[in-house]
Amino acid sequence: MFETLTQRLGDIFGSLRGRGRITEDNVAEAMRAVRTALLEADVHVDVAADFCRTVQEKAIGAEVIKTLKPDQVVVKIVHDELVALMGPVDPRIPYASPGPTVILMAGLQGSGKTTTCGKLARMMLSHGKRPMMVAADLKRPAAIDQLEVLGQQVGVPVHAERGVQNPVKVCRNGIAEAKKLDRDVVILDTAGRLAIDDELMDEIAKVASTTTPHQIYLVLDAMTGQDAVATAKAFNERLEIDGLILTKFDSDTRGGAALSAKKVIGKPIKFMGVGEKLDALEPFHPDRIAGRILGMGDILSLVEKAQQQFDAVEAATLEKRMKSGQFSLDDFVHHMRKVRQMGSLKDIMKKIPGMGGQVEDMDIDDGELTRMEAIVMSMTTRERQNPSIIDAGRRRRIARGSGNDTEDVSAVVKTFLQTRDAMKRMAGMSMMQRMRFGSQLANMGAAGGSMPKLKSSSGVSRRVLSKKDRRKRRKR
Amino acid sequence: MGLLDRLRQGLSKTRARVAEGLRAVLPFGRKIDEGVLTDLEKALLSADMGPAMVARTIDGVRSAWKRGAVKEAQDVIPHVKSELAAMWTDDDRRIRLAPSGPTVIFVTGVNGSGKTTSVAKLAKYFKDQGKNVVLGACDTFRAAAVAQLTEWSGRIGVQIVKHQQGADPGAVAYDACEAAVARHADILLLDTAGRLHTQDHLMRELSKIHKVVERKIPGAPHEVLLVLDATIGQNAINQARVFGECVSVTGIFLAKLDGSAKGGVVMGIREQLGVPVKFVGLGETPDDVAPFDPGVFVDALFE
Hints:
Chain A is of the alpha/beta class. Chain A has 22 helices and eight strands. Chain A has three domains: 3-86, SRP54, nucleotide-binding domain (Four Helix Bundle (Hemerythrin (Met), subunit A), Up-down Bundle), CATH 1.20.120; 101-294, P-loop containing nucleotide triphosphate hydrolases (Rossmann fold, 3-Layer(aba) Sandwich); 303-475, Orthogonal Bundle (434 Repressor (Amino-terminal Domain)). The longest helix of chain A has 22 residues, at 406-427. By secondary structure, chain B is α/β, with parallel strands linked by helices. Chain B has two domains: 3-85, Four Helix Bundle (Hemerythrin (Met), subunit A) (Up-down Bundle); 91-301, P-loop containing nucleotide triphosphate hydrolases (Rossmann fold), CATH 3.40.50. Helices cover 50% and strands 14% of the residues of chain B. Chain B has eleven helices and eight strands. An eight-stranded mixed sheet of chain B has the order 3-2-4-1-5-6-7-8, with helices on both faces. In chain B, helix 10 links the parallel strand 6 and strand 7. Chain B is elongated. Mean pLDDT of chain B is 89; it is low at 13-20. The interface between A and B is large, with 50 and 47 residues.
């Protein structure tokens, strides 16, 4: 299985810890590791080779600063180089005056042009603009319908001519209509086409020469492989692209296509699509994508996901409770549920820097969380506030109520107490200290397995309660 | 034009580039050396085969060279071709048909991979074989997806079961299964909404639709096809894994193979996950579909 570049480099440089300078030999070996990481991330073969040459030059003779190890120095050089190559970022859209500003969208089939048109229109509305969209995809059945639905959702008019076969004409008419309706931006949605389809490339070149758009954006799927280079090159040759929009970055793609395409055409990556909703269009972040390409995790997107789940007020309350050690099992379950809404544990852990590669081999069962929840839900309010009162009898009752063994109940209580303890200690720390502490905990977990492994294997086993038990229950 | 010719023609558009590169470095009579292997490596990587799979292939060539099974540079490509083609057994391409009643083919994939068009192609493919085909429009999410499939059903001349946009896709699947049985359909093709494999809630929804089908028609779905865009890179392996865990993918429909991309990542998927390719899509008309042919596919990587 794929291991992260960081680990790999750690192995390579492991033997020369403590020496002051990186030598040519170990850099050459490190570069092979870098190249593999880039190729795993779908960076184009030639781009990866060029990249490694540049990094090699920078790395040889680089002073190993005392606080850093050689592997970290190389990772830093690689990371900085990736950021430099994918930047600079410029998410502004240059609006023409007088308007309307004409924007032409181009790309392969299925890259996400139509959806991105809707997202752009929405973004422009929030800039105080009055965009209009033109349905010039006359190829795909019902593409016009799709753009019209998007127009309604965003609240933007759509110019469409049904039964017409000529996109040049539709675009021209669309711009004329925009002027009439006093719209200041026109977004032209064109049909998806293959870069090697000369006929269709001629057609879009003609659309461009007739409508003289102010900006031409190439929409590219972030999951694209080696072909990203050929596609970007071909479109750029025919259209003179002004910027790239990378879509579907909410997948777990490592996104090498972004680097490849940027490198070969030298045009900025303007935006990236990060979700199905129409507000899921963001300025491109080279540093985040560099981290992804290197398999270093994407902590920022994790933070963002967490922010969607936890609001600031709630976080402050939680922090207070953590500090004072008042954090109860109710809080525990409540937050466990929120975390689970962010995705599976595996997904979340993958995003943590340094965890990326290890997670693949770890056996993480989300079902355990379900069982933990069931156990907590079988406790009384008092027990949840103060788990120390749980004695053998209570433990038995909880175990029966949740369909688990008494050891499982003890394990959950123990985990909770450990967590509360850890949180109390973390509450006083800075962000950096917390991250370090967190990775220590994670290492402990990976090595010794401090996570409780509940015995009951699947689901909740139904046990018949004895009469005595039932009586006991009623009394409660 | 036969389907094979069509496939060859589609693939030939992209051959020239790699072929020229390789022929230049593998001239007649040249002995194998590490340089030959480096060139071969680059060609395979350019076809999206992925570093792990490529390293394995190159190691294979190297050991064949060391033990004398291949000697000259011009023998390298035939050797690699036969090795790669041998990965795909005949059994791989068999379509599992229902012994009686409708055969249900469940089609899934990420956004923009080409599901709806691929469903239309499969509809045409089976209709041309004289089968009675029904489509189920379970993509109720994307704007106008139902309209798109309806348009195709009209053009091809097959029946369609649909609800409004925004309806419960499981309910559509339920009705589609019922209609397929009632109308004595041979093939029921279910189109589902595109979803990224990282969207947990959407994957749960997919598994629910799958369960509805399972319960409604015993033994169904008989085939679960994952549609992959041929331009996709190594992320396809993650996709195949996650979709496989969710709905037990039985095969891949490799779409858009008429472009400049070769879809070499399916090699890695076959190797790591054992999921075969069943069909390839080669253009925009409903006729542009062919059963996967490993020989032709592998040829296209080199010729």
